[in-house]
Amino acid sequence: MLWGAIGSGKTTLVEETIRHLKDKYKIVMIEIAVIVGDTIAEMNASCFRKLGVSTIPVNTGKECYTDAKIIENAPAYAYLENICLLIIKNVGNFICPVDFNLGESLRVVIVSVTEVEDVVSKHPLIFKTVELVILNKVDIAHAVDVDAEK
After folding, report:
1. Where are the domains of the chain?
2. Which DSSP string corresponds to 110-138?
3. How far apart are CA 57 and CA 38, in angstroms?
4. What are 8-66's pLDDT values in tens digits?
5. CATH class for domain 2-109?
6. Residue 9 CA to chain centroid, in angstroms?
7. pTM
8. Number of C-beta neighbours around residue 43 at 10 A
């Protein structure tokens, strides 16, 4: 499960993960799929489809999270049985998704330096429920007057 605010780099992280794993496991033929949960999921789903992975867009509409029922009712969900790696890219929200366990093996949150000083104090629960935090866009920290080390 991947969480992050709008603009934090979720889509780019998933794209680069797919590229890296597909190159690394060319011989093994690892099957990767992405479930894209978003208000209009097709916008990001097309990015992953271009990389040749199974992609299931799940429109959440007005909901601010992707829960198990939404995923279970997703078109093509039944075809995921042969998938070795399933990435769920959740809606760009830190509040609602925290309460929903989707049976994921790993919870990841990506945070941009442009938001990091406030996001941890405003949304501490998400940082207590993830196994990995990625600090992104550190190369622009000086331009936005943020101490990336902090």
Report:
1. 2-109
2. EEETTTHHHHHHH-HHHHHS-SEEEEE-G
3. 8
4. 899 999 999 999 888 776 655 568 888 887 777 788 888 898 998 888 888 777 766 67
5. alpha beta
6. 9
7. 0.80
8. 12
